[in-house]
Amino acid sequence: MVWEVFRQERKGQAFQHAGSFEAPDQTFAETYAREFYGRRQESIALWIVPREHIETIGDFVDELGRNYHRVDGYSLKTKLKEAREQVAQRSG
Amino acid sequence: MSRSRSDRAEKLLELADDELVLGWRNSEWTGIAPYLEEDVAFSSIAQNEIGHARALYELAAAELGTTADELALGREPEEYRCAPLVELRRLEWARTIARHFLYETADAVRIEALKASSDPEIAGLATKIDREEVYHRIHADMWLDRLQASAEGLRRLREAVSELWPYALGVLDEELRPEWVERIRGRLRFDLPEGRPITRAEHTADLRELWEEMTIVRRSAPGASW
């Protein structure tokens, strides 16, 4: 059974994925997690989750190329430049 | 080494020698434990034991006017005070787990007694050591449960315990032994074996062999400072 480990380095920080290991049950998993990710005081807390309990969602479709849904899909710089040019032309 | 060591130094050396020798024995699994995770976990337990030995030798050395290294590696094999249980060369896994469980349970009883010592240095060190030993016990217990959960594991564990029993009886003295026996009885799903203790006064041939290995570098350059 594979377990995924998330560790929190300092109080208030988000937990981040740290790695994974194999353990037959929860007691073994707790022992190994402590051993591999905690005993050098590198974490203040750990989350351990059996990999099979993690739901992966990954099939994101964008058939119509609607890039304006994305923060990075709409370049304001270009649009601004075009708008300024248009204004300059009209007033010029 | 003087024959008139105090009881305090004697007890410290017993404990330190147990931890040093078992640390060496446990480290024999490094690289070849049943699977990677256990390899790391067991090696780290071995490392802790040697760390405990060092702290205990330092305490004894201060009293005896010597150094921790001198005590750990500068004595003749027959001068070691370890229990024969920890001397046995790498056992197969069920026997390793059986020894681990039998020893850690004995160590817990012994450390509890030391934590209550009127000697503040001993009580303080015992408290520190115990903070790490807690995890050794969790490790030993989880393996014990796992072995006892299947028919084959149970059979192997039972064989291992009966083979090691006389050695295990020799870890604690008569004062602490009954408490240890009760804790073991409460955890095993089979009847305790019979046997007479093999005491610290006796050493196995395995110790001499380990001593040769453990002290070879130090003996190769006597008096050198590392």
Keyphrases for this structure?
heterodimer; A: 92 residues; alpha+beta; Ubiquitin-like (UB roll); three-stranded antiparallel β-sheet; B: 226 residues; mainly alpha; Ferritin; globular
Number of strands of chain A: 3
Order of helices and strands of chain A: EEHEH
Helical run tally of chain B: 9
Tally the structural domains of chain B: 1
Computed CA radius of gyration of chain B, to the nearest angstrom:
17 Å
CATH architecture of the domain at 2-53 in chain A: Roll
CATH topology of chain B: Ferritin
Element string of chain B (H = helix, E = strand): HHHHHHHHH
Tell how many strands the DSSP assignment of chain B holds: 0
Distance between the termini of chain A: 72 Å
Report the major sheet of chain A. Answer: 3 strands, antiparallel
Derived structural class of chain A: alpha+beta
Strand content of chain A: 15-25%
User: How much helix is in the residues of chain A?
Assistant: 25-40%
Overall 3D shape of chain B: globular
CATH class term of chain B? Mainly Alpha
* Rg of chain A: 24 Å
Strand order of the largest sheet of chain A: 2-1-3
Look at the structure and name the CATH superfamily of the domain at 2-53 in chain A: Phenylacetic acid degradation B
CATH topology of the domain at 2-53 in chain A: Ubiquitin-like (UB roll)
Overall geometry of chain A comes to elongated
What does the model show?
The complex is a heterodimer of chains A (92) and B (226). With 92 residues, chain A is of the alpha+beta class. Chain A has a domain at 2-53: Phenylacetic acid degradation B (Ubiquitin-like (UB roll)). Chain A is 30% helix and 22% strand. Chain A contains 2 helices and 3 strands, in the order ββαβα. Chain A has helices spanning 26-37, 76-91, and strands spanning 2-8, 16-22, 45-50. A 3-stranded antiparallel β-sheet of chain A has the order 2-1-3, with helices on one face. In chain A, β1 and β2 form a beta hairpin. The longest helix of chain A is centred in the last third of the chain and has 16 residues, at 76-91. Chain A starts with a strand and ends with a helix. Chain B has 226 residues and is an all-alpha fold. Chain B has one domain: Ferritin, core subunit, four-helix bundle (Ferritin), CATH 1.20.1260.10. Chain B is built from 9 helices and no strands. Chain B has helices spanning 7-27, 36-64, 68-73, 84-87, 93-115, 120-148, 151-169, 177-187, 205-220. Chain A binds chain B through residues 21-25, 27-28, 31-32, 34-36, 39, and chain B through 35-37, 40-41, 44, 135, 138-139, 142, 145-146.
